[in-house]
Amino acid sequence: MNHWLTAPVLIPLLGGILQAFMGYAPISLRRTLALATTVLMLVSAIVLLVLADDGSYRIYAFGNWQPPFGIVLVLDRLAALMLIMTAVLGLFCHLYSIGGADEGNRQFHALFLFQLMGLNIAFLTGDLFNLFVAFEVLLIASYGLLMHGGGTIRTVPGLHYVVLNLIGSAIFLISVGMIYSVTGTLNMADLAVKIPEVSGEGLNIVKAGGMMLLVVFGLKAAILPLCFWLPRAYSKATAPVAALFAVMTKVGIYAILRVYLLIFGDDAGELANLGMDWLFPIALATLAMGVIGALGSGSLKTLVAWQVIISVGTLLAPISLGSEAGLSAALFYLLSTTWTVGGLFLVSELVANQRGTAQDRIITAPKMQNRTFLSVLFLIGAVAAAGLPPLSGFFGKVLILQSVQSGTEMAWLWSVLLIGSFLTVIAYSRAGSIVFWRTVEGHLEKPDPLNGRISVAAGALTALAVVIVVLAGPITRYTDATAEQLHNKDAYTEILQTKMVREDS
Amino acid sequence: MELVFALVIGALTASGVYLILRARTFPVVVGLTMLSYGVNLFLFSSGRLATGEQPVLGTAASYSDPLPQALVLTAIVIGFAMTAFVVVLSLRNLADNEDDHVDGKQPYKSPAPEEEEVTGK
């Protein structure tokens, strides 16, 4: 039992409840408290990262119930990595929103913190049904955040997003029911023990349940046939919200990693590596679709939204191959791409604010005021996203390319990834050169000057691409250890042996 | 009992899916509700259907599983809240676009052919 594990859940929960009751307090007070909550959350994530780095599993059992019977939170290296990624992204998005985007809705900070709470529960939980509840918590907050900012443009994408996710939740429940009806448990560690023993007519039910679960996680991660809701919803959302949503697709990827490596892993008997042979071609098709969308996008935010889909494809391809090196490479790229995409969303919004009615559309417009600052930020973001040296995206992609063993998979992955990256470079250079260089003479109404908070937030988030390169050594060591830990299923199932009541008492 | 139960779940899910595929928000909302009813019943049945059995702590060899009931309770609460939200969102859609089509407007129809231009010579 380690009580630190509840900190990333309790801090945003308490902070969010406080915000919910403080809707009419002065905005400066609300902002200070909200930012303090996010900073505290980051501190707790750092503590958990240090704790998890020794490679052992720590659990927190609610109500002190022995694991298969009660709900547990489980901390391992992967969970800690996701927590720190979310906390850093959340902090910069929050800082940006305090620059003015949080006005107009008294509950913005509450929703933002509840969203972070839902993400943290999803990363920490060791129970399949609790994962469903975490998905619902983060989705309910995200519905509210997506609609934030007023105006009518968000209604239709928001409606699509809500309806799709409600259908996804229904499918999630059906698959959970199917798995429970055969195994009689929903604890992930217990499932990992019981699934290999399933045989007979129960086998097909679990198989169907497992595949439906892949559909749900695929909808969250936005893989190909289920990705068309994403560009419209993300490009219409307010910038800090869109940047925070960059981590939402990664929740789907995290769930795929967790469930399919642990429960349907290599030694799951007849159900070993369920669905992974489907995932590889789908991942490559998602990557190709994202590149096509990026080439055809008409505004900066849509371009970045398609970049989210590109990165999902790039991440899932090595994950579906299942090698340890591929997993480690994918985790490195995950860190890099999430922060980069978040930064690009913030930069696009800054650009849009400076261009009057041209907004962030990729068209010629009068010259911007802070053109140099913004174009450098966009350049860094675009280079990191497209995977050009010397920034973090390049190293992520090189690690992914190195991780595949030679064969048909290598031929497919190398060709799709390299051609895709090349076309992404074209998409970014086209967008950047039109927006920043092809300006016309003209008069623009003087835009609000860049204030400190939003420039710091956007700049710092983008500059993390450089920080990742500087820290590439320690990060690779950590992701290697994470991949090794993920492949060692027995250590995870040992949490079932944890004694909840001391023997001597 | 199993057959009736399965038929009810099937009918609810089928009508729910049919209604979700409609083009107006009202049938979509009703469809989502029916789908969630079907899912709740399905989840309930995952602990096996049994009548008059003791709960898990009883002395009998067969017992009724209490866990699916806890799961269903959670699912009902979440489903109810989500239905309320989606109703409000559909009303907002209706108000914003003056149309309750799920895409906010009717799909594009080619305009009626214009009347022939009268050209004076």
Automatic annotation (TrEMBL), chain A:
One of its GO terms (cellular component) is plasma membrane. GO terms for molecular function: NADH dehydrogenase (ubiquinone) activity. Keywords: Cell membrane, Membrane, Transmembrane, Transmembrane helix. Pfam families: Proton_antipo_M. It comes from the Bacteria. Residues 126-424 form the NADH:quinone oxidoreductase/Mrp antiporter transmembrane domain. It is a multi-pass membrane protein. It is found in: Cell membrane; Membrane. The chain crosses the membrane at residues 6-25, 32-51, 71-96, 108-125, 131-149, 161-182, 208-230, 242-263, 278-296, 303-321, 327-352, 373-391, 411-429, 450-472. GO terms for biological process: ATP synthesis coupled electron transport. InterPro entries: CPA3_Na-H_Antiporter_D (IPR050586), NADH_UbQ_OxRdtase (IPR003918), ND/Mrp_TM (IPR001750). PANTHER family: NA(+)_H(+) ANTIPORTER SUBUNIT D1 (PTHR42703:SF1), NADH DEHYDROGENASE (PTHR42703). Belongs to the CPA3 antiporters (TC 2.A.63) subunit D family. This is Monovalent cation/H+ antiporter subunit D. It comes from Marinobacter maroccanus.
UniProtKB/TrEMBL annotation, chain B:
The keyword Iron does not apply. Keywords: Cell membrane, Membrane, Transmembrane, Transmembrane helix. Residues 98-121 are annotated as: Disordered. Pfam families: Oxidored_q2. It is a multi-pass membrane protein. It comes from the Bacteria. It is found in: Cell membrane. GO terms for cellular component: plasma membrane. Its main location: membrane. The chain crosses the membrane at residues 26-44, 70-91. Belongs to the CPA3 antiporters (TC 2.A.63) subunit C family. This is Na+/H+ antiporter subunit C.
